[in-house]
Design brief:
Helix content: 40-55%
Strand content: 5-15%
Strand order of the largest sheet: 1-2-3
Radius of gyration: 21 Å
Bound molecules: fe (ii) ion
Largest sheet: 3 strands, antiparallel
Order of helices and strands: HHHEEEHEEHHHHHH
Number of strands: 5
Number of domains: 1
Length: about 240
C-alpha cells in the first residue's frame, strides 16, 4: 500500500472543498494518526494506512453509486430511475473522506505469541487493539470532530452521524429510519461504506479488483480501465469464426 500516494490524493480531494476551517481540519488530520491508522483491528484493512484507504474507497464507492449531473453541478441519488436526493460535490467528498475521522487516536498495538506453522517456532506477532483516547461514540463523534474546525450542512451531518445504519437497538433504528427518509443521502453513505468494507477491502489491503481506483471516480488519480465495452474481436458472434456455416 503506497501511503504517500494516497495522502496526496486525500489532501487534493479535500483541498477542492471550499469551506472556512477546512485547512485547520487538515492540520488536525496531519497531526493525528489518521494516515497511519488501520481501518479496523482485524476485519478489513487492518494495516497501516487502512483508514486512509477505506476513506478513499468510500469516496469511490459513493461516486460510483451516484449520478453526476453536469448541468446542475451536483450528484443525484436515484431510486427506480427517479431522483430521491441531490448532493453537492463538496458534500460527497466530506461525507466519504471524513465519516470515520472518529477512528483517529482510536487504535493501539500489542504483540502476542503465535506459532509459525512453517518453522514450528513460537514468535511475537503484532496486532491492533482498541485504545480509544476520545471515547465519544462513532458517527456522532466524527461529526463533532469536523464541527470543531468547520461547518457541516444538515445533509452531511445526518449522513455522517448515522453512517453505521441499523443495529437492532430500537431508538437508534428509529432515528436512522427517520433520517433516511429526511435525507436519502444517509442511505447512500451507509451503502458506500458497506460496499467499501464488504466488496473492495480485504483483511490487509484492497481486493485485487480495487487495487487502483478507476478514472471514472478518481479522475487523474485513477487508472484508465477503458470503456468496459468488449474488444471488437470478442464481440463477434461465436459462430462467426473459421468453419462457421
Ligand atoms: Fe464508521
Ligand atoms: Fe467506514
Amino acid at each position: 500500500m503506497n501511503i504517500e500516494k494516497k495522502i496526496i490524493r486525500f489532501e487534493a480531494e479535500l483541498n477542492k472543498v471550499q469551506r472556512p476551517g477546512m485547512d485547520k481540519l487538515l492540520e488536525y488530520i496531519r497531526g493525528s494518526d489518521f494516515y497511519r491508522a488501520p481501518a479496523s483491528t482485524k476485519y478489513h484493512l487492518a494495516a497501516p494506512g487502512g483508514l486512509l484507504q477505506h476513506s478513499l474507497n468510500v469516496l469511490d464507492a459513493l461516486r460510483g453509486l451516484l449520478q453526476w449531473n453536469g448541468i446542475e453541478n451536483h450528484w443525484e441519488y436515484h431510486t427506480a430511475c427517479k431522483i430521491v436526493d441531490t448532493i453537492p460535490d463538496d458534500s460527497v467528498t466530506i461525507m466519504a473522506l471524513l465519516h470515520d475521522i472518529c477512528k483517529t487516536h482510536f487504535y493501539g498495538t500489542g504483540t502476542r505469541n503465535q506459532k509459525n506453522e512453517r518453522t514450528g517456532k513460537w514468535e511475537k506477532v503484532p496486532f491492533y487493539t482498541i485504545d480509544d483516547r476520545m471515547p465519544l461514540g462513532h458517527g456522532a463523534k466524527s461529526a463533532m470532530i469536523i464541527k470543531q474546525y468547520t461547518t457541516l450542512t444538515s445533509q452531511e451531518m445526518y449522513a455522517i452521524w448515522h453512517h453505521m445504519g441499523f443495529n437492532g437497538d430500537y431508538e437508534n433504528d428509529a432515528a436512522v429510519g427517520k433520517s433516511i427518509e429526511m435525507y436519502p443521502a444517509v442511505l447512500a453513505l451507509q451503502t458506500a461504506d458497506m460496499m467499501a468494507s464488504r466488496f473492495m477491502e480485504g483483511e490487509k489491503e484492497n481486493d485485487l479488483r480495487f487495487s487502483e481506483p478507476s478514472q471514472a471516480t478518481a479522475g487523474g488519480f485513477g487508472e484508465d480501465i477503458g470503456t468496459g465495452e468488449p474488444e471488437l474481436e470478442e464481440a463477434l458472434p461465436i459462430n462467426s469464426g473459421e468453419g462457421a456455416q
